Every structure is written in structure tokens, then in C-alpha cells.
Amino acid sequence: MKKAIPAKKPLVKPTTVKPSEPKNPQAPATFNIDEINLLLQAVHQSNVNELKLEKGDFKITIRQGGVVVSAPQVHQVVSAPAPVSATPYAPLATASSAAPVNQPPAADTSFDNLITIKSPMIGTFYRSSGPGKPTFVNVGDEIKEGQVICIVEAMKLFNEIESEISGKIVKVLADDASPVEYDQPLFLVQPS
């Protein structure tokens, strides 16, 4: 019985794209459609995930294979086992002689009806439109649906975050100019 041998991916020779000479030397340098098609074919036939080219003021980026995700780094924490004590433990005190135990305070029921406004993206959280400018909202402010309440800067783009509900700002949960994660709580709002 013969073994099945997997087909090898054919080797692809690098494709050279010759730039076209602009007919008018004063005209901006660009790629023509044939050059772009050649680039698309070359990227498709190769193992390249992304290709960026610049020609004068014209820039083109070609990506294939969807989203490139790097593997998260795993930090392993190793701890030594606790040493075994040679002395026996003291007997537990009875309830009558024990000091009063501090119990955690009961959950504040006033927070049960609050809505959390979360960050829609990873970036840097800003409470105002710039240094020295007034904040968009403060604790106690009444807000309306669609009102800008903060900015999240991501990749040099300042994204205005609008409220999805009307109500009163009860608490600001993120510090100004601090990094925030996707879905991180930013504000607590009491709906009106």
C-alpha cells in the first residue's frame, strides 16, 4: 500500500512590478490599475500577510489572511508550599469569649439601579477635549442620550464617546489620561 504524500505548495517566483513613468513630470506619482492587480496577485500567491508601498504621495496597503493576532504572553506564578508547623494550633475560642467579628457592610442597594457606561474600544480616556479645557461631564451632571461624555484616543484618533442613556452621572470610574480596555467601565449613571 502506498502512502499518500501531501502536495507541496508550488514555489512562487517573486513578481517585480515596474513603475510606470508619469506622462507629466509635474503630476503626482500613482499606481495604475495593472500595477495594483499585479501586486494583488503577488501577495495572494505568496506567504506575505501585509504589503505597504509608497510612491510619492500615494500609499497602498494590501493585507491578506484576515486579522493578525499575536499570542498573548503567559506569566506563570510558581509559589512554594507553605511550611508545616510543628506546633499544634490553639483551640478556637468560643463565641461568648470571642471579640466581635467585623462583618462587611451590607451591599449598598442604591447602586442596584445604576447603569454602567463602558469603553467601546482600547485607548486613552480623556474627560475633556484638551488640556485646560472644561470636562465634558462631572459627578452630579444630568446627561442626555447622544451627549458627548468623554473621548477615547486610539491610534492617534480622538473618538467622542456619546451617552446611550439619559440620567445623572453618579461616579467617574476612570482617571483622566489613563489607558482603558475594551468594555472597561467609565461612568456610573442613574437613569432618568
CATH class annotation of the largest domain: Mainly Beta
Roughly what percent helix? under 10%
Task: Write down how many β-strands occur, each being a DSSP E stretch of 2 or more residues.
Answer: 10
State the CATH superfamily name of the largest domain.
RNA polymerase II/Efflux pump adaptor protein, barrel-sandwich hybrid domain
Poorly predicted residue ranges: 8-13, 67-79, 94-100, 104-109
Mean pLDDT: 73
**Whole-number count of domains:** 2
Order of helices and strands: HEEEEEEEEEE
Plain-language structure description:
By secondary structure, the protein is mainly β. It has 2 domains: 10-64, no CATH class; 112-191, OB fold (Dihydrolipoamide Acetyltransferase, E2P) (Beta Barrel), CATH 2.40.50.100. Helix content is 7%, strand content 27%. The chain contains 1 helix and 10 strands. A hairpin with a 2-residue loop joins strand 1 and strand 2. The longest helix is centred in the N-terminal third of the chain and has 13 residues, at 33-45.
Which terms would index this structure?
mainly beta; four-stranded antiparallel beta sheet; about 190 residues; OB fold (Dihydrolipoamide Acetyltransferase, E2P); 2 domains; 1 helix
What's the topology here?
Elements lengths: L32 H13 L4 E6 L2 E6 L51 E4 L4 E4 L15 E2 L4 E7 L2 E6 L4 E6 L5 E3 L4 E7 L1
Antiparallel strand pairs: 1-2, 3-10, 4-6, 4-9, 5-8, 6-7, 8-10
Quick rundown:
Helices cover 7% and strands 27% of the residues. The chain is mainly beta. The protein starts with 32 loop residues before the first helix and ends with a strand.
